[in-house]
Structure formats: C-alpha cells, structure tokens
Amino acid sequence: MWLSGQATGSTAPPVLAGTLDVRFTDIDVPGYGPVRTRTYNGSVPGPTLRVRGGHQLRLTQVNGLPPNAPSSGGGGHNTPHHANSFNLHTHGLHVSPSGDADNVLREFAPRTAEEAAAGVAEPQYVTSIQVPHGHPAGTYWYHPHLHGSTAEQIVGGMAGVIVVEGDVDEVPEIQAAADIVVCINELKLKDGRVPAFTSGGWTAGVPSTFTVNGTVNPTLRLRPGEVQRWRLVAATGFTALSLSLAGGDGAPTVHQIAQDGITFPRPVALDRVELAMGNRADVLVRAGVPGTYELRAPGLPGPLMTVEVAGDPVVPPMALPAVLPAGRPFLDERDITDPDADREVILHADAGVFAGAFPNAFRMLGTGATPAADPGADLTRDPAYGLFDPSFTNHTLRLGTVERWNVRTDESLPAHGHPFHLHTNPILLTHRNGVRLDPPVWHDTIGLTGGTPGDRVTFLVRYDDFTGRTIAHCHQLHHEDLGMMQSVEYVE
Ligand SMILES: [Cu+2]
C-alpha cells in the first residue's frame, strides 16, 4: 500500500501519510509511446488515495522540477506563468480551504537556479487534510491548482483519484461488484512533450490524447451477468465527455449511482453519462450478451476503452440495488436565507481584444464581478473587468446560510465550454434553462457547453463548516489560467 495508516493513540484520528514526488519523468503511454512529462510518483495518473471520514490525509510533496523560467508570455498574472510551481487541490472534498489543507492559494515553488547550483535539497511541502466524520463516500480527485500553471500541469498527467470509502460500499450488490477506477486523462502532447503554454492558440494547435488509467484504449473484461462498479473520473482540462457503450443492442447497461462523489437515492438507468471537465460519475455496469463493445464519446479520435464481455456467465446474474444510502440530503427553495439575494454569474469571453500572445479575455461577470480598471472606457478591452484579481473578494459567503446562484454562459463558440466549479461546498443543481430537475443532483462542477449562448443553470448551496478564502472558476483550464476565476471568502 502506498498510504500507510499510523496508530497515533486512542483519541487521535488515523493518519494516512504518503509522499507525492513531482518531477519530469520518462514514461511510456501504451498506445501513444514515450512521453517526458511532470508526474506524481512517476505515473499517469498519480496513485489512487483511499480515505474514510474521520481520517487525516497527510501528503508530503517534493518539488523536483527545474527552476521556473523568467515570466514569459508578456502578460501579468492572468497569463501562464510559474510552470514549475504547483500546489494541491482535493477536488470535491468538503474540507478546509485554509492553512495547509485544500488551500489553492499556496505556491509550492521549485528550487531557484542558484539553489539548484548550490546543491540545496529539493523543497518539500505538506498538505494536511482532516476529512470530516460523515463525509460522503464516493469518488473525488486531486490535481495541482496554482493560478497560471494549472492547465500545463494537468494536461501532462498531474492528476489522481481520491476514493472516500463508506456506507455506499456496504450495499450488498455494490460490495459484490468489482470496484474499478476509470480515470480519464486528457493529455496535450506534441512529440511526447507538453508544449510550453505560450499562446492562446496552444489548445487548438495541440491534439488531445485521451488515456484511461494511463493507457490509450485499454481493454476491460466482464463476464456475462457480471456487474462492475466503475468510478468514472473526467480528469480532463478541455473536453466534456458524453460517454456511451457502443457496439450493438447487447451492450452492457449503465446505471449511475453517484455524481461528483455524492450517492443518489436510487440507481438511474442511462444511455449516456455526461461528464464536464472535472466531473465524476459512479456507475454500475451490467454485462449481458458476449461481445466486444467500446466506451466512446463523440468528438474523440477513438474509443476510450474496449469492453469485452466473455467467459463463463455469472449464474444467477448479479443484481442491482433498488435503493441507495443517499450521500447528502437535498436543499429546497424554502431553505434560502434571503430570497432576494440570488447570485448571478455570467461566463463571458471577449475575443481578440488584447495585444500579445493571449488576445482573448475570459471573464466572470454578474454579482460581485471584479471591477473595471476604468469604468468609463471600453469594457470589452478592459484588462481587469471580470478577470481574476487575487486581492479582490468577489463573493463573501456566510456559514450556515443557503443561497441560490444562477450561472449563465454567453458563449457562442462551440469549442468554449465553461464548466462552473465552486471549491469547498457541494452545489445542488435544481434547474437547467429554467426546467426543474426531479430529483435535483449534487455536483461540484456543472457543465455549460459552448455554442448555446444563454444556457443557464440554477443551484442551491449551503456554506458549511469551513471558513477561509478560496475560489470559484471555469474548469476549462486554459480559461481559468487566463483569469476566468473569482475569489470567494467563507466567513462566520
Ligand atoms: Cu471557460
């Protein structure tokens, strides 16, 4: 086991400690070839971390990357910078965003050139996270989240899965099913390298290579009548996935049992599993007719995974559960603390407005937008308006209150999806384009596709347990690095 539990006395919580070593590594990506990239512990994805509510997760991170280059790209903090600094985000976990916990405002810098030349040891940084008792059991993930370097690092494969174990695992039908992590990484590679992120055209100019658990199109086998539990993780930065199992009428059936780590009240049969960048879905896959099937998504160059149904049938066929231990009670509109104080967020891009290598402005407007540099000037060319400013608080959120947010995209370009992600507290999607979801669905990231300006979602959220400063942002990682991000502060 990579993580080791330590007995720390009768009253202290178990500590799960481990090291994440980050450096450039030569790896082989089966189906692609040799790659030199920044990794966690020499693999893509990084190790899967398994924890339970009440555990403390203590991760020592070594920064073995080369010194940062002097700032390139010609821009300020809303252009890519510090490609060899990172930090750690535990995406979806309801844990503290402060101190040395899930704090994305820290920077884990590498040695300077002078320190490296002098033989100073590689720096180490500790992330220490107390997972609350009763934390929803399910599938989460971790990745670096330093503003300015997030995209370049994640598309090199710096991402891994966190499994929170708990009640849902004890459901007999789920306990009987093989527990399989399906971590989908979207790598941006040219000649086996992630090109330095030096222009706005970078994302379009470099094709995406999709891997599942580090391999292009691996094969997974099920027996007829077998049920497997797949933990689907969209560790992608640019592409939303509309997943289906192709290959004919006999393809395995798919029932979703959780979204973004939070278990549903009952399984939901689906033809497609929609995953925006950052989303997870736990599904029960039941195989029937022998054959070869493919996990596919439109727009991808090939299948993500081949699924072979073969071998002796399981007799009798394995069952699906009828009900599940719902991961979190729903909120409803009667819980809203101040019905006249909805928050509005508009994801808005102004194309071709700046000089230099990054001409597009990816803004977050609406309630609490970052103020314009000059309110009297042309806002479409404003280098500040609606862009991330770490010194400005866009949203002050009071613990114990329930609020409604309306998030809309203005995006006319199909390639520009803008998934909305709030840190620290889960968000309950209640409406898409004014149509109520029944039942509503807990998320941490809600997809809004491009090409349909005016698309909007409504969610409810209660701010619980943790004070501190953190962020809300677009999970298209290029947009986020370019400033499509806001500061939120959770206060008593
Ligand atoms: Cu975006």
TrEMBL record:
GO MF, any single term: copper ion binding
Family annotation (InterPro entries): Cu-oxidase-like_N (IPR011707), Cu-oxidase_2nd (IPR001117), Cu-oxidase_C (IPR011706), Cu-oxidase_fam (IPR045087), Cu_oxidase_Cu_BS (IPR002355), Cupredoxin (IPR008972)
Annotated protein name in UniProt: Copper oxidase
Positions in coiled-coil regions: none
Organism phylogeny: Bacteria, Bacillati, Actinomycetota, Actinomycetes, Kitasatosporales
Organism: Streptomyces mangrovisoli
Keywords: Metal-binding, Oxidoreductase
Keyword field contains Disulfide bond: no
Pfam families: Cu-oxidase, Cu-oxidase_2, Cu-oxidase_3
